[in-house]
Amino acid sequence: MPDLTHDATARTVDTPRGPLHYHEAGEGPPLLLLHGSGPGVSAWANYRGNLPVFAEHFRTLALDFPGFGKSYSPEGNPMPAALPAVVDFLDALGLGAVPVLGNSMGGNVAARLAATFPERVSRLVTIGGIGVPVFGAAPPEGIKLLVQFVEDPTHERLMAWMESMVFSTDILTEEFVELRWQAASDPAALADVRKLFNFGSLRAMGAGRTAQAVDAVDVLSRITAPTLITWGRDDRVTPLDGCLVAMRLIAQAELHVFHDCGHWAMIERKEEFESTVLGYLLRDVKQPERL
Which InterPro entries does its entry note (predicted)? Predict the structure, then answer.
């Protein structure tokens, strides 16, 4: 397989709402990866380590949402712009039903895609980010630390937020943190993430918990695609109890919990995550007959 560097896999496609940037690697049936939110996040930041493994089996497409990475900047909050952008992306590439994997915000968007356009999603895989928090505080610790960084972007506040994302800080190498700092401190990137996370949105998360739960229940109950819910047991951004309602409401749901793992299961428990997800996705892929 060719060297899967950032530049070698980078692509851009024009859509009615603006250009969307993505990374592509591998051949075979398509697989769509949707990243999470937060300072300095992008498809590459979330999935660069997983791309080679998924590309061995799939034409793997990792999309930058509007307001993130190198995709167009939306006029308002990037969250409501994400789902229409995914539909635009699938249309632009001429794709029908595809398996979709989403982390955090990406899991939320993937769930909404599956609920609203069931003909576009053949299988759904989520990493945290969905469901209804049953016992956890709202907003959770990781979101509070994220907002503190966005409102006052210092290196120390970035580190505090990144430490809340993982079980073990061993993965927060100097190179990893520096790459995220360079992306997160970019003025344009900060302007977009502030549309999504700020002190006002933080207050709204706490005050609007009931309305958010009602919306989540509606979305989850309309998902018909076979679904694998994955979670880090020690997630401090979207705590594990959020999976309980999702497991009850999604008709064909399975759950896998990674021990000693925070919010970034695809990074912190890379090998186990890839093995679990590939085992699930490859149920739909016919393997070549052995002679």
Answer: AB_hydrolase_1 (IPR000073), AB_hydrolase_fold (IPR029058), AB_hydrolase_sf (IPR050266), Epox_hydrolase-like (IPR000639)
